[in-house]
């Protein structure tokens, strides 16, 4: 099987490495910059194309799109038109322009697609999902979901002001950047019926995007969830809590554990993640899942249609913050 990775930044290089680890996959790359091409050639010894049309002409079975967010649609559309299966990093795009055309081609050609929301492969959140599906906390009434970290410390040695997350013209901002939380809220709780948001650029960081967002989601089930997203916390934080009629389910990224409180016996049960778990395993599992979807062994946990729904919610969140309005998503 032949894979093409377009966009050779840090996430593109991670996917190349993991694909080579999985084995029995021929990997090539495409990047517009000589530095990007040279880096993957040196690290992995693979062919790296300057011209995207040449890269597609080599006949890849699947294309991995890891360009900046605002540059996802064009290469994805060309790949889909060429009949390639698609993996697109989250979010699908920075707006909905051109998305309907891709969705139409994917449906017409029966292409396999996956959107890169790797948190769906984290053992902690997978355990939370399992407990929710089993009804261990009863009917879920509310949820609190949080993620925050200090952007300048993400990539030592790299000027944070130049990365896509800090720039509105490249699809940055914490709402789109932290779409993982919107995605797994929907994964856990179902369809979103309505929402509202307050968001702004509040810190002294040199950004032109929102760095703090607080979102309220009302689900069709009636559940109300609060999501807090930020670029400003000086200590990394990622956690969630689901409150049910019969108990509470919690997860904390830093603690590496899931908690289940039972209202029946007033007892906490703790589920520790595997002691040898490494973060890259999420990405390996994600890419292996994509390969298995192409071969028909599995079905995508988040295809492009699901990714498009995540984006629709995120864009409504941004609209709510801008217009200071409560927005209904019921169609």
Automatic annotation (TrEMBL):
InterPro entries: Gfo/Idh/MocA-like_OxRdtase_N, Gfo/Idh/MocA_Oxidoreductases, GFO_IDH_MocA-like_dom, NAD(P)-bd_dom_sf. Residues 2-116 form the Gfo/Idh/MocA-like oxidoreductase N-terminal domain. It comes from the Bacteria. Residues 126-249 form the GFO/IDH/MocA-like oxidoreductase domain. Pfam families: GFO_IDH_MocA, GFO_IDH_MocA_C3. One of its GO terms (molecular function) is nucleotide binding. PANTHER family: BILIVERDIN REDUCTASE A. This is Oxidoreductase. It comes from Candidatus Schekmanbacteria bacterium RBG_16_38_10.
């Amino acid at each position: 099987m032949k894979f093409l990775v377009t966009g050779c930044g840090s996430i593109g290089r991670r996917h190349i490495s993991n694909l080579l680890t999985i084995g029995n996959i021929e990997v090539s790359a495409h990047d517009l910059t000589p530095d990007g091409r040279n880096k993957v050639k040196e690290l992995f010894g693979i062919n790296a194309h300057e011209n995207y049309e040449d890269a597609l002409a080599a006949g890849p079975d699947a294309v991995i799109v890891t360009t900046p967010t605002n540059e996802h649609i064009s290469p994805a559309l060309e790949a889909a038109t060429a009949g390639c299966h698609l993996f697109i990093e989250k979010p699908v795009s920075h707006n909905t322009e051109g998305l309907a055309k891709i969705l139409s081609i994917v449906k017409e050609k029966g292409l396999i697609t996956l959107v890169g929301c790797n948190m769906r492969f984290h053992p902690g959140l997978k355990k939370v999902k399992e407990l929710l599906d089993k009804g261990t906390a009863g009917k879920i009434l509310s949820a609190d979901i949080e993620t925050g970290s200090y952007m300048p410390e993400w990539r030592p040695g790299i000027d944070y002001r130049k990365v896509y997350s800090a720039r509105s013209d490249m699809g940055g901002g914490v709402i789109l950047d932290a779409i993982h939380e919107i995605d797994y809220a929907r994964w856990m709780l179902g369809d979103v019926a309505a929402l509202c948001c307050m968001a702004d650029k509040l810190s002294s960081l040199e950004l032109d995007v929102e760095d703090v967002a607080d979102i309220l989601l009302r689900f069709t089930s009636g559940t109300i969830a609060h999501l807090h997203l930020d670029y400003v916390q000086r200590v990394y934080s990622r956690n969630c809590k689901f409150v049910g009629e019969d108990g509470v389910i919690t997860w904390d990224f830093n603690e590496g554990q899931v908690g289940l409180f039972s209202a029946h016996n007033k007892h906490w049960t703790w589920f520790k993640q595997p002691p040898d778990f490494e973060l890259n395993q999420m990405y390996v599992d994600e890419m292996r899942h994509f390969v298995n979807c192409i071969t028909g062994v599995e079905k995508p946990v988040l295809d492009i249609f699901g990714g498009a729904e995540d984006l629709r919610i995120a864009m409504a969140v941004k609209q709510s913050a801008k217009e200071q309005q409560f927005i209904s998503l019921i169609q």
